[in-house]
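With this grant's support, the team has encoded backbone shapes as discrete tokens. A representative record is reproduced below.
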Amino acid sequence: MPADPLPRRARYERGAARVFSPDGEPVGAGFLVDEGLLCTCAHVVAEPDGSPPPGPVEVDFPLLSGAVPGPRVTAEVESWRPDDDVALLRLKAPVDGAEPLPTADGSDGEWDRDIRAFGFPPQVPRGVNATGTLRGRQRADLIQVDLDAPGVRIGPGFSGAAVWDPANEVVVGMLTLRGKGPLDGTAYLLAADRLVGPDVLGCPSRELVIAEGETVRVSDALTSDWQQAHDALAHPDWPHTPTLKADLELLQLPLLVDVDSPWVEEHQRTWDQRRFYALREAGEILLAGKRLREAVEIAESLVNWEPLDEPSHLLLISAHMKLGAAGRSTELYQEFRRRLRKELGVEPAFELAHVAALAG
């Protein structure tokens, strides 16, 4: 059933979900973090012993529909992180009108920001809004929120709800805990930067909202490149494995080169640092998997990028050694040694010198 039209700025409503227990009753909330990928609390869908659900979980998106609830869709666990109380569920079918919610990148403050969260307490199974104000981090991963009084108290049915900053239109975290006794006017959310971990291998998309209001979607392979590279190496027709090739190609590209914005420049620097180390790790995996020419290609791009990065030179020299090009390995080592002496006044590290000595 197509979703009812929503106002253009009703962004939160398009990503907020309701999670059902096996007996069909609302048990908590969730929200889309990527196309078809829903985030909720692990304890919302866990078995009594804390293990992940053995079968599909039903969810729906009640704010997309009118007086009659829309259809439910099943989802299965794709990532399970009980220590962080995070479960990521992959929807088995698309939902008309549903959209992923952008998450905060941590650059804005976490004090005195107004928020809302939509939960499903037992007495209001169709859902209700709670509002409050951020009061900073209580530890590295948890942010405190003081609830508005009088107002809806956060309790059972709110776990897994996206905590939404209406002013900036981003998710700042996910509700996980509520205060009790004298602290019943507080709740705690897992910060947005802790929600999607590196075990998510689907090469998710990330939405970047430019300060001037332009929204750009880019594919971020950094959550998947190491594991996908490792898996691809075991694949007999590796050169034709598109996921690894696409990841490596993406990692060699700058971010949003056509957008002129100080905001983008800041994120370009972060992206460049991350993709450099990701590429180097991928090159080491290729070397270990005896994909030597591919390892050389990656290593050459790294040393051109950072001419004084010793691990990248070690990768390049080792790859040539394994290709049987000992003379080229010695040549590369001597060039790098001269450059280190000239620019930094130091000698190469023992490991690199040892590899070069083996080359003769």
Summary: The first strand starts at residue 16 and ends at 20. The first helix runs from residue 11 to 15. The domain at 1-196 is CATH 2.40.10.120 (Thrombin, subunit H).
